Amino acid sequence: MSPSFAQxxxxxxxxxxxxxxxxxxxxxxVVDLAAKRGAAAGDVIEIWRPLKLKHPVTGKLxxxxxxxxxxxxxxxxxxxSLARTEGKLARTPERGDIVVLRKAKLEETPAAKPKPTPKxxxxxxxxxxxxxxxxxxxxxFAPPPAASDPxxxxxxxxxxxxxxxxxxxxxxxxxxxxxxxxxxRFAAVLWEEAAHLRRLFxxxxxSAGGAPAIASFESPKSAxxxxxxxxxxxxTGDAKGAVLxxxxxxxxxxxxxxxxxxxxxxxxxxxxxxxxxxxxxxxFIEATNAEGxxxxxxxxxxxxxxxxxxxxxxxxxxxxxxxxASLWTDYADYNRMRGNDRVWQTxxxxxxxxxxxxxxxxxxxxxxxxxxxxxxxxxxxxxKSGRKVGxxxxxxxxxxxxxxxxxxxxxxxxxxxxxxxxxxxxxxLRLGNDKKTNLQIGGEVLGGVGLRGITQLELNVFExxxxxxxxxxxxxxxxxxxxxxxxxxxxxxxxPDTTSLDAGEVGARAIVQVGYRVTPGLVLAARGSYQGRTxxxxxxxxxxxxxxxx
Length: 550
Description:
single chain, 550 residues, mainly beta, Immunoglobulin-like, Porin, twelve-stranded antiparallel β-barrel, nine-stranded mixed β-sheet, 27 strands, disordered N terminus
């Protein structure tokens, strides 16, 4: 509640004499308004509390004051006087408080003079004595700065409107402004200033004596998200009520909730479920006395209590490890469907997927590789027969995830050729999660068959239609020189002397595979390809795949 102000005399001829409170002695207040300054015993003087403020727009220090009541001079001497309170004061007097003596001027009857010729009168700005007593006399209160935008103008006007207002009114005005516009440019500045004023208010309240105090209170350390939380406190002193101020993490302003009396000196309040959100809730508690003034009780706006709010644990099903079985077959012709440079490969596997990181997956499978090949010169220019190349193999493959985005796929191969045992390996780097769009880059080597460089993009943008793009650079199937005593001619009647023994040239393949998800776990796919070693030594290809995951 703002303090009341005494009414000034109706005439503007009032002199204002200012002084300060020098000391407090029992019930007497020593001031430096004395006889030499026009004071007399019985005069009623105003007492004002000085206040230093920070302008929210300019940040400059501004000195203001607000009236806290009246004093009556009881003993007046030449230099100092003694005074006592006149009525009830809004604050307890302190050294340094400003006192103001207002008295009407004594006018002398002037001698009769000829009436002077009227002259223009210059406009004079009224002095502090001519202003309403509600305006603090001689307060160093800067005019509002020239605002460059509407926000600055509004806040400057708000600040200027509080000239001479007491601490309580300023706190309420600042906090109401922040609650109205919590995301405004000056919300944080005004809230900090309100917190500063609350500390001043608390200091005044403690000096008044008989202030409410906590008799018994235990702050909750943690709570569950979405569950209402009840807080209670036992209060002693002149407490007529209590208010809880709480805010969630990220909020600037506190939300105030009156606490209800649940017994003599006991107050309780419940923070609703929707306000209990992780990670924490901050709060402080104030008591209200018989005059309705708010006094600090637990913590403060700038140093609130914190309650850690934990999310409610939700039951989760055990992590299901996916199993997959897949089979694909692919035919590729490199020489215009002549049959002397071609590959037919079929491969299948079963595997288990564990997690994104660490050992992501483990697979085991088999493959059948059948091809015919040779060098371009011997096949196309000399007209030799292509030689048969075959490998039946098994493999073990592991995928290790360094993160959900990056993984390494390693495969070891062991198989049988016509002339004995052969081995091989494959290594791929996967960028992107295997359940989403990802890119694989790597290579393969198969003993007696050749080398293959692989780049594969698995496009999982369309859930029902998974798409695969793959390019290969390879010298398979005839990737190495053959021995005459072990060569197998493809053409009937051909001999080792009329069969190509040289290694085949490097060629390139482009493959597109389009799948369709028949059920959530079953995908059928068809593929087409085109491959060649030169522009004249090339041909088409086709294939298909089926994959089931459970």
